[in-house]
Every structure is written in C-alpha cells, then in structure tokens.
Amino acid sequence: MDGLSRGPPTRLPYALASVPERRRAPCGLKMPSAPLAVGLIVTASLLLMLIRPRDIAEGWWIGGGAAVLLVMGLLPWRTAVHAVGEGTDVYLFLGGMMLLSELARREGVFGWLASLAVGSSRRSRSRLFTTTYAIGTLVTIFMSNDATAVVLTPAILAAVKKAKVPPLPYLFVCALVANAASFVLPISNPANLVVFDGTMPSLGRWLASFAIPSALSILTTYGALRWLFRQDLRGVVPDHGRPEPLSLAGRLVLVGLGLVTVVLLIASSVRADLGLPTFVASVVVTAAVCATAKRNPLPLARAISVGPLFLVAGLFILVDAIEGIGALDVTRAWLAGAAALPPVAGALLAGSFVAVANNVVNNLPLGLIAGATLRQAHPSTLLSNVVLIGVDLGPNLSVTGSLATILWLIALRKEKVKVSFFQFLKVGVVAMPLALLAAVGGSLLMHSIFR
C-alpha cells in the first residue's frame, strides 16, 4: 500500500490503564510513573546487554529486565506470555539453523570451505580475500548471518593462520558480509522474520524488492574492505597448501543443506512461516546424516543453545512493554514524517536513521520495534523495504549493532584474538554508509521500475 494510513484506533496503553500514575513504595517513597519506570527498566536492560558486566550473558540482562517489569506489576503476566508466544517462529528458525551449523562444523564442512579458499588462492592474498568473501556470502545467504559469524569465523582464522597471512582482513570479511548479504533471502537473517512477522512477502516479491539492493550492498562492502585493507592484501600466501578432503558425511551435509534451502525457498514462495519448516528439515537432515555415518545425534542437541532463544524471548517481552506505554505513537509519527517527504529524501532519512539506531539499541530489539511500527502504520512498500535494509545493514557500523557481530567477537575471544570497538568503527564508518547508500539507491531503482 502506498501512502500512510491511520490504522486502527490507538488503545489505551496497558501500563497506563492498569497502574496508577504514582504508587507508594513500602518505605513511603513515591515510585515513578509507569511509563517512566518502564522506559528506565528497558533502557537499562538494553545497555547491560551491550556492556555485559562481569561477562554475564546477554540473555540474563534482558530476562532480568522482563522479570522486574512483571514483579513490579508494570506488565501483565498474560501479556508477557503472549509476547513470548509471538516469537515461536523465530525460536524454531534459530534452533534449526543452530543444529545445521553444528552438524556442518562437526562433519568438517566449514573447515573444508576455509581450506578450499586457501588452496584456491594461487599464492595471492587478494585472491584469498575474494574467495573468503564469496564463501562468507554464500554461507550467509543460505545458512543465516549467525552461521557466518559463529562457525565460519574460527575456520577462516585457523586457515589464514596456517597460510601465514595477516588475519584481520579475512576476519572482517566474516563480520561485515554477515550483515551485507543478510537480506538476499528471507532466511539470511533472523531479523527478517522479526521485521516482517506475519506479513512476510512471497519469495517473488522479496527478490523483486531486494535483489538489486542486496547485490549492491555486497559489492560495495567488498570494495570498501578491499580498499581499507589494501596494504595487508599485497603480497603472496607463503603456504597455500591443498584443500582438505571432505568426508562422506560432510558431502551428505552439503546435500542436506541444499535440500533444506529448497524447502525454505518453497515455503517462502507461498508466504508460509519459515520457523517450523527450518526446524523439521534440520532434524530430518541431521537424522539422515547421523544414521548414514553411524554417529550418535544426541550430542548435536547441545548445539541448540537456550541462551539466544532466552534472549529473543526477553526482547519480545520488553518490546511489548514499550508498545504498552505508547512508544509506537512516536515511531509511527516519525515514519509518517518520512513518508511525507519526496521518495528519495524519505528513503534516505528512514534508512540512515534506522541504520544508526541499530548501533545504539542493537538490531534485534530495533527490528521488533520497527516491525510493530510497520504493521500499525502501513507505510509504502519502499519505506518498508528501506527500514529492513537499515535493520540488516546498519550493524556494520559498530560492534554493538547486531547479535551476529557480538557472537563474532565472542568467537574471536575464544581464539585469543581481540578487535576493539574503535578498530571496528574505523572500518564500519567507511563500509556501512557506502553500502547503505548503494542499497537504498537500489531500492529506489526497484521502486521506480515496479511501482
């Protein structure tokens, strides 16, 4: 729908309807008004998630904030349960992708891909960089950006260390391509499911909207990284070695990944939810590979970590709390202002604002807020597409932008490699704006062709 409609009448926020403006605390002090208390608790939870004091996992801070809202009576329990239920499709998608990623890791698929990159480099660092970028792009497109950040990164690091080349350019590939290629397909990023929850376009419409923008995003990010690391990419690869042979089980995993991708593309083409098909297909592929290789599948179940699922569930609760105090009125008004501008100005404003905001609150909560705003405001297709581009691509600015980037940092720390906030920012401040301008420009082009 072009233009911005008013949508249904605004309901009275539950926090205002169910909680008196002032309450008396047991000690006799006045408690702050409900909207202020909700805002402070949610803000504190998000900040603690990003800072991670004492290395406590992100999910505990978000879950703790949700628990405080419930204990203080600022959020009804029924609303919280409903909010958690809204994330079922995302939980199933994440669980299935985690299972597939661990299966591919255990059977040596990622290590084989990394050695393939080194082996095909022909002793050229720049060729190794290009091959690594291509592999990262394919893994992101068909296995999601989390797989690139978490599982491919250690394999690439081990391969480039063995090849005796500076590792930083190739590690930044894993971080940035995980976001730059994450809107090629609906399955490339869990944030896509969050933004378009219940309103996912068909595969044909998705490709018509995002094929050119995603291609421009990938190519521009590649060019920016090549230029930024041009000094490190000069010279030869001292030890290019030979690709490691892939076992029969590994080859079966590749076939299984192809079948899962086909299943998800079919589900996407008929606008079905992607979570259940992802999980069922992943279980079937895992069972088939383990049966053929005569391996015990139970250890793989540990790969489905409850931490990310707990984090996403908590974020759904916090976003529902923010909706309950009327915060979406502000985001709807902002989106209406962008819609009132000429298409080019409105698209650039919306994309830039969302992209930068990712790095303040992280793209998962921002994606939830953006998705809720889009469902209520019914903006033009162009603005909806640009908002998604901002949610997916904006995290390439800083390490706080997305869960995938945070997981990438954690994977590097396990390998005793440190990348500071400012190291990442020096790369992101060049690569992200260029890719964003290119992708938004591509979206404007697609809009002019298909409107």
Oligomer: single chain
Uncertain stretches: 1-32
Total DSSP helices: 21
Radius of gyration: 22 Å
What is the arithmetic mean of pLDDT? 82
Number of beta-strand segments? 0
Order of helices and strands: HHHHHHHHHHHHHHHHHHHHH
Per the principal axes of the C-alpha atoms, what is the gross shape?
globular
Head-to-tail CA distance between termini: 10 Å
**SS strand fraction:** under 5%
Helix content: over 70%
How many structural domains can be distinguished in the coordinates? 1
Class per helix and strand makeup: mainly alpha
Largest sheet: none
Task: Name some characteristics of this structure.
451 residues, mainly alpha, globular, 21 helices
Give your account of this protein's structure.
- The protein has helices at residues 14-18, 34-51, 58-71, 77-86, 88-106, 109-119, 125-143, 145-163, 168-180, 190-195, 203-228, 248-269, 275-293, 298-301, 306-324, 327-340, 343-361, 363-377, 381-393, 403-414, 421-450.
- It is mainly α and 451 residues long.
- α2 (34-51) packs antiparallel against α15, α4 packs across α15 and α12 packs antiparallel against α13.
- The chain is globular, with a radius of gyration of 22 Å.
- The termini are close together.
- 53% of the residues are buried.
